[in-house]
Fold:
Amino acid sequence: MMESQKYAIVDLETTGHSPANGDRMIQIAIVIMKDWCIEKTFTSFIHPGKKIPLYIQDLTNIRDEHVADALPFEAHADTIYELLQGAVFVAHNTEFDLSFLQAEFKRAGLPQWIGKTIDTVELAKILFPMSLSYKLGDLANDLNIPLQQAHRADDDAKATALLLKACWEELLMLPLVTLEGLHKRSFRLKSNLSQLFFDALCIKRNKVSNEENYIFYKKLAIYKGEASIDTANENCGYPETTIEKIEMLQSALPNFEERPGQFKMMDSVWGALHRQEEMIIEASTGIGKTLSYLLPSYYYAKNKGKQVGVSTYTSYLMEQLLHEEIPRLEKITGNTIHVALLKGMHHYIDIARFEQQYKMADDSYDETFVILQVLIWLTKTTTGDIDELNVSGGGQLFLDKIRKSETSQPVSGDYDYYERALTNSRRADIIVTNHAMLLADLVRQNQLFQNIGGWIIDEAHQFVQAAIQRDEKVFTFKHWKYMFGQIGYYTDENLFYKLQRAALKRQLVPMNLLHQLEKRFMSMVSKFDEGMQSLLRAIQQMTKGSYKHEVKASIFLHELKIDLARFGHMSAAVQAWIDLAEEVAQLFSANIEELAPEHRFILGEWRYWIREFKLQIAQWDEVFLIQHAHYSTWIEVDRRSLPGSIQFLKKPINVTTTIEQLFAPYRGKTGIIWTSGTLTVPNNERFIADQLGISPAVPLHSLQAPSNYYSGAKAFIVTDMPDIQNVSQSDYIEAVSHAITRTVRTTGGRCFVLFTSQQMLRQTVELIQECGLLDDYMVFAQGVTAGSRMRLLKSFQKFSHSVLFGTNSFWEGVDVPGDSLSSVIVVRLPFSSPEEPTYKARANYLQQQGKNSFVELSLPEAILRFKQGFGRLIRSSKDKGVFIVLDRRIDMKSYGIEFIRALPPISVQKLPLQHMVLELEHWYNNER
Structure:
């Protein structure tokens, strides 16, 4: 039985990762655990026979003097080898610890250790699928496991032992059916987890378990969720006077500070909702914008019996509203506030589709792993929102297969998380959604938001971008080839082969129809290849000329000499295949009740791919066959990988008509409040309002925090950075890396580094990592570190010694109060690239109207992003932080003063890097 199993939990600290290259151990710890109790520990420093690298000293706090009197590994080898006998080897990343140890045993003349292993990283990823990070320190923090000093073998080994025990206890709490599923699929895992799962299963089978918290869909256990309790709302009167507001907020918020701007915004929102008027409010950081619109929205909803919709830009901001701002509002009002979070359908799991995949899925490691994660997640999630899962790259493809869609098989509302969300939204006072979901109401058959009695559009400056993305059409060569591969010819033994065999076996579809279907598939693929060949010739012709020096190129469709009729032939061929594929699906499903589960699975897959082809051909037609005056269409290619890198994009240049159409039913009938921290720029107050198509008659209020709010902020402009025009890219990146690492080390981390180019970000991060300059810091980098933007932000906020490298989407919408952020470094002023196609198309459109695109578009957009970047830094009057600009143009160009004017009234110093670091050191040591 499991209780008598001996575990040897091992952790090593080393001079590096490669024993073959001379890296050696500097500390080892082994914890022996039996019956889930620690029986024995062995720990010792090891003399590595070489100097310990400085970055390893920083990371582990183990210095040369600690190992000076220690013995070499050979002196401990026999003892260590003996301790491991008869034990399961456990480590937090067994691949590293065991392989390093095996190399050391070999060097000491001992045979290779043989036995079973458990990797607690692999185990924790399965059992805690919603964790932000699987680093030992983070898991220890999440699970309240003591870890005094991370990266010390003795502390790490003990924490790993307690983590293993926590995982065992977690297993015993799972429903029986989930444990059975875990065990059944565990044999393809990298470490020997199947025995652990089996032992838990035996215990579970032998005792009566309470499973009333779950509902069951076939063999899936799903967390039921807690029934909401309606509580009587005592006080539903809006606090009209300043005194009433102060009393209400002071009693609920311990650190409450009176902010006149906040009260003014509350009253403005309250008035606009009551008068059913439209209003624009720019509320700078420090106003307390979110509470300023939530409080009057709640009281309006309660008093009028109408729902108020709050739309924001990102999922991260939606979650922040739900989990941070609404609880604060409940404290203030003393009432339970009914809020519903509503995302697009594809965010939610399709339980029927997952159940089919679960029964029939291939046994690849990635697929097995994500299935196990989803099994556990279903016993915990209250939302069914797939974004909650922390899944590695290979698992993402599987998640895309199990998302809910318009063609999902209907299931009972209890098992349909999207329906659950819609039901919750009907009972809510406040509905929180995002701009994309709101814009989708334009084309929804059953509109979700028609009963809304007032709208708050937060992050309003991003509504333009959301409208552009909604109308965006994309076609990629790779995706089409992938879809063709999924269907395949009969000889490929893919989906068509499986469908044909099943159909003939059951005598459901005539053979001649299947032959015809394959011919149409062949015609479709052939027409696609012909179209792509003509496109390829046109691209190669074009890139020989004006783009010959560029590896990556963006080319507008009208610049390419191609015969668009070929693309019409392709469209007709795809439609012909879809029509017949649907007919075959209809025949196949005539007696669906009699079909075996594996045949139902094949039918489900077939319908899924028919839907994909329908969606893709609609995009194809939009890109190639339907011409609109206010759209731009272009192709993006990487010349090193043609035709695989081909992708087409089509985006609107102007979205005012779309936005007017969306809000027409609300204007004059409901209050509409557009708000953001940045809606104006110097010399162009209505820049965003005009892009949104809001009438000049709609008032714009700009509310600024009192000047003392920013007393803890400083700005530095580094004057001796090289001019990017006069040095090589590598020299510039070296200078940027140097400036970043000096700043980070001076402030101790808690730093955002903002880039405008993903390529420059990647090269900078690679250089910093190669040199080991920030090895003792948690480095998160957009596009480099795995995970969504939201996950990176949450992870960043959990660590004090952390640095986040981000591009466009990290310039804004990130609330990091207090000590979590102490510096923001702006690497380049956030101008759009003149060659970026969306910008280029909009700039051309302005120039055709006789306007200056730099003054009217490029400069105001850059200033807005710059303001947003600064807005990340100071989130309360007690915050202290530095805003550092490395781009010399702010000092050298005439427009630089516009950026400085856009900042709040703070100290702005222009200094060389060395002087700036000294100033920073002095300020940091004295002020914090």
Q: What stands out?
A: The CA atoms of residues 812 and 868 lie 5 Å apart.
